[in-house]
């Protein structure tokens, strides 16, 4: 039921401004965060995908998301046991920091240790074709937030 409800919400907020305004009024981003913390893989993926879509199509919401601690929450989710769901979390985090200095600054907070986490993830995912998109998001975050490249010579790209 929750997956179908999330699908309906996704359709409403992406298709019309009134749906988005109601979503915001009812603290929909907090609901998405709780869904991403659930034990139901499909619910986690769909909620992270919706978050990424909202960030891309409504960049004006980035400040709201940063103020509610979304960067820290997303990084905590990335630290969980590796899962295909991480691709969507990393995609949402990329969308949150793109053209948004406050998001970049939050990712740079030393207590998050995000740079090291991303470098470790790059090592884990390298040469595994099924995780290429996740690897791309890690490399993008390293470049945007830390102006660094992964630890490998990239001449073969």
Specify the number of helices.
Answer: 10
In the CATH classification, which architecture applies? Alpha Horseshoe
Can you write the helix and strand succession as a string? HHHHHHHHHH
What's the level 1 CATH class?
Answer: Mainly Alpha
Tell me the total number of β-strands: 0
Parts with pLDDT < 50 across at least 5 consecutive residues: 153-157
The residue fraction in helices comes out at: over 70%
Q: From the alpha-carbon coordinates, what is the Rg to the nearest angstrom?
A: 16 Å
How many separate domains?
1
The separation of the N and C termini measures 44 Å
CATH superfamily: Leucine-rich Repeat Variant
Report strand %.
under 5%
Name the average pLDDT.
93
CATH topology: Leucine-rich Repeat Variant
Organism: Micrurus lemniscatus lemniscatus
GO molecular function, one term: adenyl-nucleotide exchange factor activity
GO cellular component, one term: endoplasmic reticulum
Protein name: Nucleotide exchange factor Fes1 domain-containing protein
Description:
The protein is mainly α and 157 residues long. It has a single domain, classed as Leucine-rich Repeat Variant (Alpha Horseshoe), CATH 1.25.10. Helices cover 70% and strands 0% of the residues. The radius of gyration is 16 Å and the shape is globular. The model is unreliable at 153-157 (pLDDT under 50).
């Amino acid at each position: 039921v929750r997956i179908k409800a999330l699908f309906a919400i996704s359709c409403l907020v992406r298709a019309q401004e009134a749906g988005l305004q109601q979503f915001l009024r009812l603290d929909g981003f907090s609901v998405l965060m709780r869904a991403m913390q659930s034990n139901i893989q499909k619910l986690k993926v769909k909620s992270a995908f919706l978050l990424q879509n909202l960030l891309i199509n409504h960049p004006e919401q980035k400040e709201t998301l940063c103020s509610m601690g979304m960067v820290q929450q997303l990084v905590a989710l990335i630290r969980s046991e590796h899962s295909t769901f991480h691709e969507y979390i990393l995609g949402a985090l990329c969308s949150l920091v793109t053209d948004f200095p406050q998001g970049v600054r939050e990712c740079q907070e030393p207590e998050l240790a995000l740079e090291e986490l991303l470098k470790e993830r790059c090592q884990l995912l390298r040469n595994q074709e099924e995780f290429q998109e996740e690897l791309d998001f890690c490399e993008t975050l390293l470049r945007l937030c830390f102006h660094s490249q992964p630890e490998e010579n990239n001449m073969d790209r």
